[in-house]
Amino acid sequence: MRKGFIAVKTDVKKLRNRSMLRSGTHQKSVRSFGCSECPLKGRRVVEGTAALATVDVVVVGEAPGKTEEELGIPFVGKSGQVLREVLKYAQLENVYITNVVKCRPDRNETPTPLMIKCCKSRLEDELRHAVNKKLIVACGDIATEWLTKHGEVTQNRGFFRDTEYGKVMITFHPVYVLRSLNVTDVLGNDPLNYFSHDFRRAKEFLTTRKVCKDITERVQVVKTSEDVQNMLDSFSVFSQTGEVCGVDFETSSLDMFDPQMYVSSVAITQGKEKVWCVPFKFLEPSLVEVASRAVQKVLDTNNLVMHNANFDMLVAHMKFGCCLKSVDDTMIMYYLLDGSRGHSSKRLKRLAMDWTDYGDYGVEYDELLGLSEARLIDYNCKDALVTVELREKFLHVMQSAWGESMINGYNNVVKPAQLLLFWATVNGMKVDVAYGIQLLKDLQGKIKVIG
Ligand code: URA
Fold it and tell me: Which residue, 58, 95, 181, 371, is most buried by CB atoms nearer than 10 A?
């Protein structure tokens, strides 16, 4: 048994009694739902497991399996044991467990769009009757797609989404968790770790109603010329420490060469505790020039860390005239640790979710332009604070995995190479990335032959 888990034997009798407690109103006849068109018509309907009116959390899976069909109760087979153990481990009570499709598809296959469509009103009915629910947990692609319209679980796991049905947290399907035990990533975590982590965060949400950490106390906002001076004074002391500053720019577009593009806000941390924010979009026009010069000074006199620095370095240089001498890029650090992952798994919010305890502070990109001043500052500052934390964690994992020589390699080869690439780009040199990749492949091939 995994450390931290309590063995739970599902008490089927108790569950059966509880399922009798359902409000009843949603247990309508087959005809009042969409069953007549459904390929699974006539199969045993497996509905949820609690008194709907009293539930705090609704957990939604895919469709019942063989054991569930036999017993008429969702999630009581092997994957159900995993789910129920994790619920207990996270101390989640008053949970209603159900599925997108209520009957078992042949050979436990993934339900077809028609099955999902025919069963839609059943789940809608359950969700409607769970009047006191505070959170819905979507387990796996099918439930995530149904509830949030973003079915890609590996990318969205751990995030909370506001939907027409209420707040939804996305997590793995327990079958996937069960199949991937011991398949660990660079952090040494397997899907079960992430699955239980997600449910602990669900519990935290129920108690605090917060999906992310509160950083208000740590934020200094620059809105007046006095604030500008305070920021400069504070950084002139901070620079002496040699510690890093996390930097993040929020911009009106991602096209650096769009003449309309402007910087709406900049956040610069002092280590990982304090963060200064200059919300350019909300500044008095008379202050923009002096605040920009202050930003340039701070960035030029500190060791910086950025995420996906290729973009932010261009912004720093082109919009603020920065010289940029020392920049760590957390995206490259992560790539060194786990280059096999797709680009989107290196998104800052995804990494923040997996490597820090900031939680879900994400904002959809198209929401960014319309954010209020307070939300923009909060979001921008979190991005910068998370970036510093990631650097620290990545260095730690690099150190324990590879030792000092790789850290030296990173500091003396990778970092300077990135700066070189950056300066080559801003000086108009055409850098052919595809050619570089091909060159690397050829070299690797030759090294293999020599070896
Ligand atoms: N998988 C599901 O999605 N639901 C169950 O009830 C059992 C297994």
Answer: 58
- Cβ-proximal residues to 113 (8 Å cutoff; 6+ apart), any chain: none
Residue 65 has pLDDT above 70, yes or no: yes
Element (H, E) at 235: helix 225-238
Residue nearest to atom 3 of ligand 1 (CA): 62
- pLDDT score of 262: 95
Please give the DSSP secondary-structure letter assigned to residue 98: E
Helix (H, G, I), strand (E, B) or coil at 240: helix
2 alpha carbon – ligand 1 mean position (Å): 22
**Token pair listed for 218:** 């740590």
Which ligand 1 atom is nearest residue 74's CA?
Answer: 6
**CB-count burial class (<10 Å; 0-12, 13-18, 19+) for 223:** middle
Read off φ and ψ for residue 180, nearest 5 degrees: -110, 20
Contact 12, 84 (CB under 8 A): no
Asked if 80 and 68 count as a contact pair (C-beta separation under 8 A), the reply is yes
Say how many Å lie between the CA of residue 104 and the centre of ligand 1.
9
**Ligand 1 centroid, distance to 93 Cα (angstroms):** 19
Distance CA 45, CA 101 (A): 9
d(CA 65, ligand 1 centre) in Å = 6
pLDDT at 379 over 80: yes
Instruction: Report residue 376 as tokens.
Output: 């923009």
Cα distance between residue 402 and residue 84, in whole Å: 38
Among 44, 60, 68, the mutation site with the greatest number of ligand 1 atoms within 8 A of its Cβ is 68
**The total number of residues written for the chain in this structure:** 451
Ligand 1 binding pocket includes 279 (Cβ within 6 Å):
no
What's the whole-number average pLDDT of the chain?
89
Q: The tokens of 55 are what?
A: 């539930």
pLDDT per residue as tens digits for the range 381-425: 999 999 999 999 999 999 988 888 888 888 999 899 989 888 888
- Residue 20, pLDDT score: 41
DSSP per residue, 20-72: HTS-STT---GGGTTGGG-TTTTSPP----S-GGG-SEEEEES---HHHHHHT
| Structure confidence at residue 341 (pLDDT) | 67
